[in-house]
Write a structure and sequence with these properties.
This protein is α+β, with helices and mostly antiparallel strands. It has 12 helices and 22 strands. It has helices at residues 3-15, 29-45, 124-130, 179-187, 189-196, 209-212, 222-265, 279-286, 417-425, 427-435, 448-452, 461-486, and strands spanning 75-78, 83-88, 101-104, 111-112, 120-122, 141-144, 152-154, 162-163, 167-172, 216-219, 306-309, 314-319, 325-326, 333-335, 352-354, 373-376, 386-388, 401-402, 406-411, 438-440, 443-445, 455-458. A hairpin with a 2-residue loop joins strand 20 (438-440) and strand 21 (443-445).
Length: 487
């Protein structure tokens, strides 16, 4: 379920008068608009507000070419008709002073509410200077004129804030306009698309005040505004529950996959077959002088399993090389950390390319092949990330080689690479790798020696096949559930 589109649909129904039923006993919006006009005239005479500069005549309430039809009790108006203030922010920037009054910039304007975590703060002097034309207050609306253009938030907290650059203060008519309704109305697809389509600018586009003040808006009766707000909040609360449920389920899915791998590498995912050739025989066939490791884990593993070091299972185990890059020739890609995606998978789209004159320095051994296990070996946040390479990732490229920040694990024929990939990807081993990193906080490094001496639990070859098959079967089912969540 696409909850973002669902929210937009609810707002779209609301702006078209289709979210809640109309009540014939409601005071028509045309009467409400006359009351607003009269109240504004009173405030102007008393000197409490100034008469706005009209961008066009708003006295005519009949629109011959309305954007869309609305219920008969509604009326089309301009945004400036139902507000007492639409004020642009100062066009200067203000530095973050770390304490004082919140400075609401466009990143602090969410979809309906202010996002004040990590907000910049300014002194009383800056606060007074920036708010000289208008002081934001509770129930005022702040509109983002540039990225993320179209976001609108209502001030609900009784906290003194000031406007950052490219923001607009909108003050609805007190008691005659529901400020939350107006916030939702400006978040609708109609309002967003209409105003953003008026945006100008080259490097950074922004919505001009000349487009905001005369913006055409359908106005429902005040009682219906309240009902619309209540219904939107009810639906949004349900959607919040769905999103939280999806987030919880995603966490469960991640934990389930981790548990499957943990069971697999400890011999608890599939049953053992006493007729399988023991792993010790497999390893001695590879190396007649092989001596199994003995540690506390050996007593907890199935009888026909064996423990060895990673280097005992590899035909190639090495970091890549530091390449000389070409800025023009795009023939021979170099596999770097960023080619191992955070959320899974491999892509060469972001790869840089070898200088063709240096190809002779790279032996065939360094060219990645199907079954190679790739481990990011440097970088905070990325080190230890493990992926399984397949030649299909090459696409049109003849080959790819790893740079010095990626380690390549290539196993011998009697070890199934998918099993070893699952083993190294398990949380059990990933924790071990993280605990054995070297370097500073800003540049962690996984030395090749840590990988070489990594303890591996080796099942019989036939059981490796059963484990890999079972993991693929379970992961496929889980991935289908995950895809269903994203529909």
């Amino acid at each position: 379920m696409d909850t973002k589109k669902l929210r937009q649909k609810i707002l779209d129904l609301a702006i078209h008068g289709k979210l809640v039923p109309q009540d014939p006993n409601d005071e028509p919006a045309s009467v409400l608009l006359e009351r607003i006009k009269a109240e504004k005239e009173r405030l102007i005479k008393e000197g409490k507000i100034k008469r706005s500069k009209k961008s066009g005549s708003s006295d005519t309430l009949h629109y011959e070419n309305v954007p869309f039809e609305v219920p008969s009790s509604w009326v089309w108006c301009r945004l400036e008709d139902i507000t007492v203030l639409i004020e642009d922010c100062p066009h200067t920037t203000a530095k973050d002073e770390g304490k004082g009054y919140p400075l609401v910039r466009t990143p602090n304007i969410g979809e309906g509410q202010l996002l004040l975590d990590g907000v910049h703060r300014v002194s009383k002097e800056v606060y007074d200077k920036r708010n000289v034309r208008a002081v934001p207050q509770v129930d005022d609306i702040i509109y983002a004129r540039e990225a993320p253009a179209g976001n609108v938030a209502v001030i609900r907290e009784n906290e003194q804030v000031c406007l950052g650059q490219r923001t607009v203060l909108i003050r609805p008519m007190n008691t005659l306009i529901d400020s939350v309704w107006l916030t939702y109305a400006m978040l609708t697809p109609y309002s967003r698309n209409h105003l953003i389509s008026k945006a100008t600018g080259s490097t950074v586009t922004h919505v001009n005040m000349a487009s905001i003040r005369p913006f055409d808006l359908p106005l429902p009766p005040l009682s219906e505004q309240h009902r619309i707000v209540a219904e939107i909040k009810r639906w949004f609360a349900l959607i919040d529950q769905i999103e939280q449920g999806k987030a919880d389920l995603q966490t469960i899915i991640k934990q389930t996959k981790s548990k499957i791998l943990d069971l697999a590498i400890h011999g608890k995912l599939v049953p053992q077959d006493p007729n399988d050739e023991p792993a010790i025989e497999l390893l001695k066939r590879i190396n007649p002088d092989f001596t199994p490791c003995d540690n506390e884990h050996s007593r907890k593993l199935p009888q026909n399993w064996c423990i060895c070091r990673l280097k005992d299972l590899c035909s190639f185990l090495s970091r890549g090389k530091s390449p000389k890059y070409s800025e023009n020739d795009k023939t021979y890609p170099v596999f770097a950390q960023k080619c191992n995606f955070k959320d899974g998978g491999i892509s060469l789209e972001q790869a840089r390319f070898l200088d063709p004159s240096t190809i002779c320095k790279w032996s065939e051994t360094y060219k990645l092949r199907t079954g190679d296990i790739l481990v990011n070996s440097t970088g905070t946040g990325t080190v230890g990330r493990t992926r399984l390479f397949h030649e299909s990732y090459l696409g049109q490229y003849p080959f790819v080689v790893p740079d010095s920040h990626v380690s390549v694990i290539r196993v011998i024929d009697d070890i199934i690479p998918q099993y070893l990939y699952a083993y190294i990807s398990s949380s059990f081993i990933q924790r071990y790798l993280q605990d054995n990193l070297a370097g500073s906080t800003n540049q962690k490094e996984l030395y090749i020696g840590v990988l070489e001496n990594l303890v591996i639990f080796v099942p019989p070859f036939i059981e490796q096949q059963r484990i890999v098959q079972k993991i693929e079967e379970l992961f496929t089912s889980i991935d289908e559930i995950q895809k269903a969540l994203e529909v």
